[in-house]
Design goal:
The complex is a heterodimer of chains A (161) and B (139). Chain A has 161 residues and is mostly helical. In chain A, helix 1 crosses helix 2 and helix 4 packs antiparallel against helix 5. Chain A is globular and about 50 Å long. Chain A contains five helices and two strands. Chain B has one domain. Helix content of chain B is 79%, strand content 0%. The radius of gyration of chain B is 18 Å and the shape is globular. The chains are: A mainly alpha (161), B mainly alpha (139). At the A-B interface, helix 1, helix 2, helix 3, helix 4 and helix 5 of A face helix 1, helix 2, helix 3 and helix 4 of B.
Chain lengths: 161, 139
């Protein structure tokens, strides 16, 4: 499965951009919780309240969704381990921010890690998702977004000028 | 320091891995089901870790205002959205556009909260990110 690099659906673009906005809110609120407790408690509580919220949403939507699994292949067991990876992320980042890397360094390196992983994931279609070829335009967009993010993280945050 | 750098890089890789796995699970179920499993498995792992190292429920936790607990439910929508998007626009686009949205909204939040920022760098960063998004829309 190789989908050709066609123009991105603007609705998908906006949805992804908005999802980033959700991340900002999430990090802010979890940070507030961390101030009253610690990073582990904050992540633990967020996963707990998140589990309850997801269960409530699923219960509400249950009746409206007849035979969701019909025609879909079963997921392999490893596909259920996204939360394991997420939990490990929390431990690694909360350790890294308390080193000389601080928040900016942790964010910048985390960004690099995400870029490397996503490039490999699309290149080889890792973990059962479709392969995707990058066009020259994709690479240009990639470079601009990375440069802008690096600028904000490394020079914009925390300074005063 | 090398260890810290490895941790931070690895954290980024794991963010991508998590989205890839949840995206795969969403293909066989739904994005919301994938988000549910992501949270309950994460909760189980962190509970285990907390019981091992102690201090899972610190003394000050009871003083936190209710809105500090809103991050969890927001995370449910965040994970579901990522799982839905990755199958449609790929890992690179999802990662980059989510990061772009996070950066731009982060700058906005800092401005609203009057957190000190270096304005020229933040403003130029926002312009570059928006230019990158616009580039994906050019025919």
């Amino acid at each position: 499965m190789t989908s050709s690099a066609e123009r991105l659906n603007p609705l998908h673009l906006l949805a992804a951009f908005g999802t980033g906005g959700l991340l900002t809110l999430m990090v802010y609120f979890n940070g507030e919780l961390g101030r009253y407790g610690n990073a582990l408690f904050s992540s633990w509580a967020a996963h707990g309240t998140g589990t309850i919220a997801a269960a409530i949403l699923l219960a509400i939507l249950w009746r409206r969704r007849p035979a969701i699994a019909a025609g879909k292949p079963r997921a392999p067991l490893w596909a259920y381990l996204g939360g394991l990876s997420g939990g490990a992320t929390v431990m690694l980042t909360s350790t890294a921010v308390n080193t000389p890397l601080a928040l900016a360094g942790t964010l910048a390196l985390g960004l690099a890690g995400q870029v490397v992983f996503s490039l490999a994931a699309d290149r080889w279609g890792l973990f059962g998702l479709p392969r995707r070829k990058l066009s020259l335009r994709d690479i240009g967009a990639l470079a601009l977004i990375i440069a802008g993010s690096a600028l904000i993280i490394l020079f914009g945050m925390g300074g005063a000028a | 320091m090398t260890l810290a750098i490895t941790y931070a890089l690895l954290a980024g890789l794991l963010v991508g891995l998590s989205r890839q796995l949840n995206g795969r699970l969403a293909l066989s179920t739904t994005p919301l089901v994938a988000s549910f499993w992501n949270h309950i498995i994460g909760f189980a792992i962190l509970t285990l870790l907390g019981l091992l190292v102690g201090g899972l429920v610190p003394a000050g936790a009871a003083d936190a205002p209710w809105h500090a607990y809103v991050g969890g439910p927001i995370g449910v929508v965040f994970v579901a959205a990522g799982s839905w998007l990755i199958a449609r626009i790929g890992a690179v686009n999802t990662a980059l556009l989510v990061i772009g949205g996070q950066m731009v909204s982060g700058v906005a939040l800092d401005l609203i909260r009057a957190v000190p920022t270096t304005l020229w760098a933040s403003a130029l960063g926002v312009v570059l990110i928006l230019a990158g998004m616009a580039l994906t829309q050019r025919r």
